[in-house]
Amino acid sequence: MKKVFVTIPDLHAKNPEVKELLISSGFEIIESPVIDWTSFEKLDEILPEICGAIAGGVGKWDESLFKKAKNLKIIAKTGKGLDNIDLAKARKYGISVTNTGSANANGVAELAVGLILSLVRQIPLLNNNTKSRIWNRIAGCEIMGKKVGLLGFGAIAQSVAQKLSGFGTKLYAYDLYPNYDIAKKLNVEVADLDFVLRNSDIVCVHLPGVKDTEKLMSESKFSIMKDGAYFINVARGSIVDEKALYNALLTGKLAGAAIDVYEREPATYDSPLFKLDNIICTPHIGGTTYESLTSDCMLTAGAIIDVINGKAPQNLVN
Questions:
Q1: Where in the chain is CATH 3.40.50.720?
Q2: pLDDT digits (tens, 9 = 90+) for 279-293
Q3: Looking at 12, 236, 242, 263, which residue is catalytic?
Q4: How does pLDDT run across 197-208, given as a tens digit for each residue?
Q5: Is 263 a catalytic residue?
């Protein structure tokens, strides 16, 4: 029996037909019962048996695992980011790697817009106060007329720009390889990083988590942002120096922040960020919608079936 390791607990819970597709195609599914699948007590036992794996953003796929997974042919990654997979070593061991492209772009973009609105209107604080019988009508800000800077201008950022266009915002974007045609269509001004940071009331991160972006948002970068600006990260935790973000929030340099991603995931709750009142935290759920999970499930299952059957899979990246 061909075995597939699903590292995301309950991934197929809302899409049982995808699970049935794998089973009917001759696969046995082994599901991790824990989010941090690298701590799964049976991991060393199952690694030599699997021919495919469905991976999320938690846990590092590196040579130490590839040496044990001697029959592994494909890692099908949900989402677009591949920062937790050593692509060079996967290639060395003959392991194909796929992602699901921009299947979850709309879900992440909608969360980004939701976090922006929640921040500027202080919706979580007002909700908690009201339920605690504190009738404190705190004035918030409107985003109409605000300048929003997008760090990165791929599919997700473009979707954010399209959605924010209806709010009457001025949009900036920083990207090493920007699509100027789409930027023009969406009325987005492309500029360098420092310009975007200096001139934006709201900065939203949509960059990939690669070596060149590691801790890009450092103390020096936060220092050049507008006093009282807002900061949102729905991309990768590695892009932000969390200590620098904490200091910017603590000193009032930033009015508020919202983060969906962390330097370490699952998040370590000893982080001082969780003690601040001016930050909104969510557990890396940007792409976790019923709609995007359906797409992810179908794409990952299809990729595994194709590779094992000797066919070229969709969204092959390695």
A1: 2-103+289-308, 105-281
A2: 999 999 999 899 998
A3: 236
A4: 999 999 999 999
A5: no
